[in-house]
Amino acid sequence: MKVKDVMHKGTTCVESGTSVKEIAKRMRDSDVGAIPVNADGRLVGIVTDRDITCRALAGSGNLTTMTAKDVMTKDVLCCSPDDDIKVAIETMEAKQIRRLPVTDSHKTVIGMLSLGDISHRVSKELSGEALRAVSGHHA
């Protein structure tokens, strides 16, 4: 099975200058916990609900002027739609991440792969293993 068989196709992306408040509104309205950040149509980061909580709200910056660039996670791990789903799950397990942007050969975001997507489309054994590994407590 390939990532393209499991992923959520299409996703809302923002530019690096988008305000944190606007990102939070988009997350709420789209019922998602992460939004990829683009620059010139290419993936440069991702803002998660945790990034907003830990870097913006709990940080020392001015929340009213903070943008995606200020809070985003850089060096985002991503996958290709043609990757084997087991490889993508292994990446998520190894790095304890809940979502992987899916990009084309030009690093343009074409979808997202989440634990929820995995839980609905792969075997219970494989999805349960992924959930346990990703959700495990940090040592």
* Helical/strand content category: alpha+beta
Number of helices: 6
Helix percentage = 25-40%
Quick one: how many beta strands?
6
Question: H/E series, N to C?
Answer: EEHEEHHHEEHH
Describe the main β-sheet briefly: 3 strands, antiparallel
**Gyration radius, in Å:** 15 Å
- The amount of beta strand, in percent, is 15-25%
CA-based shape: globular
Strand order, biggest sheet? 1-6-5
Query: What are the segments in which pLDDT stays under 50 over at least 5 consecutive residues?
Result: none
What do you see in this structure?
With 139 residues, the chain is of the alpha+beta class. Helices cover 39% and strands 20% of the residues. It has 6 helices and 6 strands, in the order E-E-H-E-E-H-H-H-E-E-H-H. The protein has helices at 20-30, 49-57, 68-71, 85-95, 115-121, 124-135, and strands at residues 8-9, 14-15, 34-39, 42-48, 99-103, 109-114. The longest helix is centred in the last third of the chain and has 12 residues, at 124-135. 27% of the residues are buried.
Notable traits:
139 residues, three-stranded antiparallel β-sheet, globular, 6 strands, three-stranded mixed β-sheet, single chain, alpha+beta
